[in-house]
Design a protein that fits this description.
Layout lengths: L14 H16 L13 E8 L2 E7 L7 E2 L6 E8 L2 E8 L2 E8 L6 E2 L6 E7 L5 E8 L2 E8 L6 E3 L7 E6 L5 E6 L6 E6 L6 E2 L6 E7 L6 E7 L5 E7 L7 E2 L4 E4 L3 E2 L5 E9 L6 E10 L6 E3 L8 E4 L1
Antiparallel strand pairs: 1-2, 1-25, 2-3, 4-5, 5-6, 6-7, 8-9, 9-10, 10-11, 12-13, 13-14, 14-15, 16-17, 17-18, 18-19, 20-22, 21-22, 22-23, 23-24
Length: about 300
């Protein structure tokens, strides 16, 4: 089951102090070549955690400015997936979690599912017309697909006793990558949208999770969790056939689901960064880095929100 998320209090400052803080927050990102986003369609969505059972959806511009809270529920709002000006996410309380659809103003919310179990890991198709997600029904964890408009008829994609979770669409909308423990360990798999031609992409002793297919179709991001000599979660990329695996982060990281920019040139993710020597927490925020590798830069405006489930 995915971790739930936390929220810390805002520190309100005024006058010239606030202006100085805004400059300091934005300067590192401007150094990466970012400028202000032209409209809301370019904002980064992510989950911010207030407690284990209470989280909300936030958005921020790619240059690190204009942090905005989109949902204000007393339950769990998490795992946003956005196409254009609309986004789908997990909503609800306790063991009753469904899928909701909203716009980037945080208004016009529509509940898409009304299941007795738990619906998680929603992801919109590239054309924004369908959603794939994991639904827990009668102790089974399977992937489903349905239209977000019209009949909303759902179709089950996977059917086995394993956990099938964290789907991500191919850019052409014909295939999915996902996580499954059908062979014992949590690995990354690829299959057609109808559930055929399943191909295992990773095979190691670590637990692999949260794959994200790049918009240009060339790469798949994923997180690999290693347990020895100490627990770490590192970011990797690989080709859609499972070849050319490359580690993108090094050091003491605890990463959550990564996301691509629309041009496939940048990666954003939520993570806790620890000092290798002392083990002390350095940052707990969103990070951005070049897709080809490099030093991640923190979105300091998101510090302490325990961000996860980013979507760009």
């Amino acid at each position: 089951m995915p971790q739930k998320f936390a929220f810390t209090q805002k520190i309100v400052v005024s006058g010239w102090v606030a202006w100085i803080l805004r400059v300091l927050l934005v300067l590192p990102l401007l150094g990466l070549g970012y400028s202000a986003a032209p409209d809301d369609r370019h904002r980064i969505l992510f989950t911010g955690q207030r407690s284990l059972e209470d989280s909300d959806i936030f958005s921020i511009q790619p240059d690190g400015r204009a942090l905005r809270r989109l949902s204000r529920s007393l339950g769990v709002d998490s795992e946003p997936s956005r196409v254009g000006r609309f986004w789908v996410y997990t909503c609800g309380q306790g063991n009753q979690l469904d899928l909701c659809l909203g716009d980037l103003n945080g208004k016009n919310i529509v509940q898409l599912t009304h299941d007795e179990g738990i619906d998680l890991f929603p992801t919109l198709s590239p054309d924004g017309q369908q959603v794939v997600w994991m639904s827990e029904q009668q102790r089974r964890h399977e992937l489903y697909v349905m239209d977000i408009k019209g009949s909303n008829r759902r179709r089950q994609i996977t059917q086995n006793k394993a956990y099938d979770v964290s789907p991500s669409w191919s850019p052409d909308g014909q295939q999915l990558v996902f996580v499954s423990n059908r062979h014992g360990n949590y690995e990354i798999y690829r299959m057609n949208l109808d559930g055929t031609e399943v191909l295992r992409l990773t095979n190691n002793r670590s637990a692999d999770s949260t794959p994200a297919w790049s918009p240009d179709g060339q790469w798949i991001l994923y997180v690999e969790e290693q347990f020895r000599p100490q627990p770490t979660k590192s970011l990797y990329r690989m080709r859609p056939d499972g070849s050319q695996k490359v580690r993108l982060t090094s050091g003491e990281w605890h990463l959550s689901a990564p996301a691509w920019s629309a041009d496939s040139q940048w990666i954003v993710f939520g993570a806790k960064r620890f000092d290798r020597s002392s083990g002390k927490l350095i940052h707990n925020c969103l990070w951005i880095m070049p897709a080809q590798g490099g030093t991640p830069v923190p979105y300091l405006a998101t510090e302490g929100l325990n961000p996860s489930g980013a979507n760009w």
